[in-house]
Fold these 4 entries.
Entry 1:
Amino acid sequence: MIQYEYPLSERIRTLLRLEDLFDRALHFSVRQDSHDHHVALVTLFEILDVASRQDLKSDLYQELERQRATLEGLRGNPNVATDKLDEVVGQLEAASQGLTRMTGKAGQHLRDNEWLMSIKQRTSIPGGVCEFDLPSYHYWLHLEADVRRRHLAEWLWPILPIRDALAVVLRLLRETGRGSRQVAQQGVFQQMLAGRVAQMLSLKLNGGVPCVPEISANKYALNIRFITPAVDERPKTFEGDVEFELTFYNL
């Protein structure tokens, strides 16, 4: 099964993008090869751009506190496991404290590093980080792998509270969904939302079916068109019926 997640609010869109970027940066930063470390650094610059929104930290903090207050209201409910409640509340509190300890704008330590910013500026130019453009970066890429890994960890560490906070929020969001089986007749599906409030939806689709979903949604209707994932010709609507699982999520 392949799962496709689709954000229905700009805030969730930002969190999903950051989740993907943090996963990529952490994956490549612990590897050995200099090419992997280049990818990790470029991804770190992408995180900096996405996380630079002034209200990101406060949005995350407010959502964590809202969820904590909601869960605290469940104490004493005989249908709620106390140990599980304590575990989730503890995770929310730890994530909130991590955000509180962050000083200034997210990624400010990167902006204050002139060497990193010179590399960031050049990465926007195709081929702009060649050795003749940035000899100091070329030198860094030839340092021992352990040294490069240590530098990458030092640059990533101050913004990891953002990753930890969004991970908790997205995990709680994903736990709110309940899937339903649907069929797209001749590759097309439409559902009236009738006032349904959701922040994200997902589709689970058999990976053996040669199609991918194109999703559009507003507060009135959800439209899904399954298309053939051709890489050498113009995509077209899949001609068969498509069975899939549809899930809405809302905190």
Note: The radius of gyration is 22 Å.
Entry 2:
Amino acid sequence: MRGRIDAVWSDLTPSERQVAEVVLERADDLAGFSGAELAEFSGASKATVSRFFRRLGFTSYAEARVDARSLRARGVPTGGLPDGSPGPVATHVAHDVKNLTRTAENLSATDLDGVVTTLAAARRVLVLGWRNSYPVALHLREQLLQARPDVSVAPLPGQTVAEEVAGLDARDLLVVVGFRRRTPAVPAVLELAAELGVPCVLLTDPAAGPPAAPVAHRLVVPVDGPGAFDSYAAVMTTVAVLAEGVLARRGSAGRHRVGEVAKAHDALAELES
């Protein structure tokens, strides 16, 4: 919105600039204002408000409100905690409980057992994630690596993923973590995996459209937060559920792996005693 206003600032009338100042000050709340309210806040007429948004390239103020709402739906950090909220901690905790409940319902309706079986049995597992999805991918890799060998994460800093994907086949598994504000790499790698015959697990959010290519399993986890930023509490719980399932599925082999990793930690003195 600021970029649009900057582009036409010199052409705005004094009354339109009054509207512009209010919009810039209250941009986070724009989706919740009516045209009459915005006119009242700025001291301009409703006709001036309509003319102002047409100058910005919108057909109407209603279209501008839709655009403002869609930004948050795409993961852009706009807005803040709602007025009258009981406080940041209580508000976030209450919202995360709702997301966890929705996640439990979603996971129970999916073939979670099939996902765990595939994660445990694959020859190699490659976990991919970009932007906010990368920490999730890294954490999933670290948890799985406790229970089984041959788990890698990409892209590494400064690296591309082609070298990691090349050589994978039907014996392996690709886990794509693709939460909102996805990069074009997400659909591209799903399409490539389908061409190579590599089974995929897609971990994503409810706002995502259909996968660019068929995937073996799709786990949908909500990440919407009560304020400007997304919450990944339910996502990390899902990672814990998957890793726990893989460890249990591998049985004695999984327990042996845990023991061997612990011995290596002791030998290298990498962790506090």
Note: The first strand starts at residue 125 and ends at 129.
Entry 3:
Amino acid sequence: MSTVQISASDVNKLRQQTGAGMMDCKKALTETNGDFEAAIDFLRKKGAKVAASRQDRESNEGAVIARTSEDFKTGVIIELNCETDFVAKNAEFIAFANEIANAAVQNKPALIEELYNLEIDVENSRIKIGDAIIDKTGKIGEKIGVSKYEVIEGDKVVAYIHGNYRLGVLVGLSKAVDGADEAGKDVAMQIAAMNPVAIDKDGVDATTIEREMEIAKDQIRAEGKPEAMVEKIAAGKLNKFYKDSTLLNQEFVKDSSKTVAQFLDTVDKGLTVTAFKRVALGA
């Protein structure tokens, strides 16, 4: 046990540096004879132990952050999870999620593993995101981690966050024209509400098409239609699926007399969506 006197100012200094609780900081300084660097390592190891002990816990709460670069050519979405709604709504947790999103949009890592290796500013020092997450786990006492990470690029990228950080959308537009910001937000809200499977029918994967056709055929046969008519009716149902489930063909939520494609054409002739991502918390 240390014989070094640990002052309240020393404890507060360590707390400012690490964000850990007062009692944890006092214990860390006591255990390390007042050595600040060793105390920081002590707290980090505690965080790692807490993280290891929480690995089998469910972490379905959290925050979804959608963010664009300053030139609006790149957008990212990250989902940072925790265990409870109480922590998810905490301003410090939201700020931490935003720091991770900032690093992501600046560096555009390809994978979550690469994201974890990026450095961010934490209490006046630079540490890897992965280490910062361990530190936060130790401080908060809940399992924390990034479960989803998406990035898109385009001539104009618009980001939208819906429902108190519970859903994020990115929309890539083909042109950076007047009205693109508002149009992009309208389309992002459409995506949030209607959850399309692709931009248009050419983007629907073969497995989905095959599944929709089989469901349609089973429904038609159950209705007692002649076998000779099954293929034709199923093709009609598939076209309805494209209309309901692909973004550009959907009825525009804010004006049902137009499709999304037609709405974008009124903003600027030929304006269209080149990419989109939608991330819902826990989905």
Note: The mean pLDDT is 88.
Entry 4:
Amino acid sequence: MDDRSPADAPGRTSRGIQSIEVGGQLLLALSHHGRPMPLKDLAREAGMAPAKAHPYLVSFGKLGLIEQDPASGHYGLGPLALQLGLISLQQFDPVRLATPVIEELAQTLGHTMAIAVWGNRGPTIVRVAPPPSPVHVAMRHGTVMSLTGTASGWLFAAWRPWHEVAPLLAAERAGAGAAERARFDAELPARLAAVRERRLARAVDLSLPGVSALAAPVFDEQQRLLLSLTGIGPTPAFDTAWDGPVATALSRAAQALSRRLGDASAWPPLPHAAAVAR
């Protein structure tokens, strides 16, 4: 017996709640801009007066969808919005396919394994599989990874559209001195090209001293980067060789997942040492 109401029948337009749709314009505006905004600007972007927007913001704040910075008074997305976003990313089919893969890799390799996807602030960890060893590097869901300080970040910098990665790269180089910025700009094209050639990225003692990582990309049928498989461990115990067991296992797993998702492109041969120097 079909327990749906007549309004749920296929082809029938369901009636919504207008006030929720109106207030939702504030959430859409924050999502579109990707940064906290003052009340007047936020209200303007949502097409309403500040006096009308404020009660919605109060209610959204009570739910955790929005939070107000006590210093600036600006409104940004709150913790519940982040949780909903992470749950949505985790329900993405490629993530579900990759989850048992990183769990098996963590068990066989003895290192923390993670899945990162592209979020509105850059590469974001959405799944973590700890190893059986009591000594390992802990990662948290929702962690946003540096583009140039992490293995996952280098993958996304190499394959995401330039208009997405350029502002984040500019922000990361902004705090460096003139000589460091010049070296960064000179070396960046070659480093990105090397990541694309290897289909592997490596980070040794970059963002966190004593921590190293390797990451491999997972593509779809149009060769769009969907996610990264990342292995993370203490530098003294983590083999970062291009032809080592971690790199080889990550590459094989990433290629197998990519094939399942429709990628038919040619991958570098394994082991990688035959094609790329360490």
Note: The longest helix spans residues 178-198.
